[in-house]
Design a protein that fits this description.
This protein is of the alpha+beta class and 341 residues long. Helices cover 33% and strands 23% of the residues. The protein has helices at 67-84, 104-109, 192-204, 235-249, 260-275, 289-302, 305-327, 332-340, and strands at residues 24-33, 40-41, 44-45, 47-51, 59-65, 111-112, 118-119, 123-125, 128-133, 138-144, 169-175, 180-188, 218-228, 282-286. A hairpin with a 7-residue loop joins strand 4 and strand 5 (59-65). The protein starts with 23 loop residues before the first strand and ends with a helix.
C-alpha cells in the first residue's frame, strides 16, 4: 500500500535492506529557537571557533548543537507515538535501558546492547552551528530559588532565620530566541514508511537541549528534501554559505535578531548553489511547488489518527520483518562463515 503520491516510489526501498544500498534522503532543516534553550556540556554552552563564511575568512565563535542534542529528542517523540498507538509496550522497550530490537525506533535509529546485539542507526545527524556569532546569540541569566511566600527572604523555615535572604542564586548562559541552526538530517536507504516516520518526528519535536520541561522550545522549518546516491554537504559549510549570502544581501543586522524570511531565502539559495557543486546523482525538492505538495501531503497524513496509524503500522511491519530476517535469526552470511570455521 502506497502512502505518498507526491514522491516517485523509485526513491524508496520496498523493504529495509540489511546492507547499505546507496539511497539517501536528506531533510533540509532550519532549527529556530523560540525560547531560551541550553545546548551545553559541563555547564557551559557548546561553541566552536570557525570561519565566518566560505568567502568571509574572518574567524568567529558559533554556538554548536551536537548531534545527540538533535537526534535524541526526535527519537523520543517517535517512541512516544509508538506507545500511544500500542505498537510498543513501555515494559518491553525502554530507551537506553532495554531495547526490544524489533520496532521502528530500534531498527531506524539503532541500538547497542553489549553482547546481545546492535543495529547501526540509519539516521545520520551532524553537529549544527548557529548562523550568528556566539556573542550576539546568548544571554546570561541570574537564577534564584524563592521561598514559599514567593520572595527571596525566609519566614523562619527549618534551618533559617526569619527574614534571612537566601543565597540560592546562580548564573547560567542561555541561547536567545530567534537563533538559527541549519541542519541536514539524513536517512540512509529509506522505505516509504521509514521516510515518513523520520519526517514526522522532525515536524513534531518542539523541545531540544537541557531542561526540556521548562525551556528549550525550538521549531523545525523544512525548506526542502534531497534524494541522492550519496551524502551531501556538511552543516557547517551550509551555514557558512548562508552567512555569505546574507552578508551579500545586507540582511545580517547585528545585534538585532535575524529575520526568518531572510534566513529561509538565503538557506534555499545557499543549498541550491552547494548542490550544484556536488559530484553525486541527486534530485532536489527545495522550496518549489513540488516540495510544498510533499509537505502538504505529509501533514495531511500526520494530522489525523487514521493517517498516523497507517504510517506507524507500515513502519512497524517493516521493522518486525527486518528483525525476523536479520536479528532474531543468524544471517546466511554468518551461517556460512560459521560453517567454514
Amino acid at each position: 500500500m502506497t502512502l505518498l503520491n507526491s514522491i516517485d516510489a523509485k526513491f524508496f526501498h520496498a523493504e529495509i535492506p540489511y546492507k547499505p544500498m546507496g539511497k539517501y534522503a536528506h531533510f533540509l532543516t532550519v532549527r529556530v529557537t523560540e525560547s531560551y534553550p541550553l545546548f551545553q556540556t559541563d555547564g557551559e554552552l557548546n561553541k566552536a571557533r570557525v570561519r565566518a563564511g566560505v568567502k568571509d575568512k574572518n574567524t568567529i565563535s558559533r554556538l554548536s548543537m551536537f548531534k545527540r542534542k538533535q537526534s535524541t529528542p526526535e527519537r523520543l517523540v517517535g517512541r512516544e507515538l509508538l506507545r500511544t498507538y500500542d505498537f510498543v509496550k513501555p515494559e518491553d522497550c525502554e530507551y537506553n535501558v532495554e531495547f526490544a530490537m524489533n520496532n521502528p525506533d530500534c531498527i531506524i535509529y539503532g541500538f547497542a546492547i553489549g553482547d546481545s546485539g546492535s543495529e547501526k542507526s540509519k539516521v545520520v545527524v551532524d553537529t549544527a552551528f548557529s548562523i550568528t556569532a556566539f556573542d550576539g546569540s546568548h544571554e546570561t541569566f541570574t537564577l534564584n530559588a524563592p521561598y514559599e511566600n514567593g520572595t527571596m527572604a525566609s519566614k523562619g523555615e527549618k534551618g533559617t532565620t526569619q527574614g534571612q535572604v537566601t543565597s540560592r542564586i546562580n548564573q547560567q548562559d542561555h541561547i536567545r530566541p530567534q537563533v538559527f541552526f541549519p541542519s541536514i538530517v539524513t536517512l540512509k536507504d529509506p522505505t516509504e514508511a521509514s521516510f515518513l516516520y523520520v519526517f514526522n518526528n522532525i515536524l513534531r519535536t518542539r523541545h531540544y537541549g537541557a531542561q526540556t520541561t521548562r525551556t528549550g522550545r525550538v521549531r523545525n522549518e523544512l525548506i526542502g528534501i534531497v534524494f541522492a546516491d550519496g551524502e551531501i554537504v556538511s552543516n557547517l559549510r551550509w551555514t557558512q554559505t548562508i552567512y555569505d549570502q546574507m552578508t551579500a544581501d545586507g540582511t545580517l543586522k547585528s545585534p538585532d535578531p535575524l529575520d526568518e524570511d531572510d534566513v529561509s531565502e538565503a538557506a534555499k539559495v545557499a543549498i541550491e548553489k552547494l548542490m550544484g557543486e556536488e559530484f553525486i546523482v541527486h534530485t532536489d525538492f527545495i522550496g518549489d511547488d513540488q516540495f510544498k505538495e510533499i509537505l502538504a501531503e505529509v501533514k495531511s497524513l500526520t494530522a489525523n489518527e487514521e493517517g498516523i496509524r497507517s504510517i506507524l503500522e507500515k513502519a512497524n511491519q517493516e521493522a518486525l520483518t527486518y528483525h525476523g530476517k536479520h536479528i532474531a535469526k543468524p544471517t546466511t552470511t554468518n551461517v556460512k562463515a560459521g560453517a567454514k570455521k
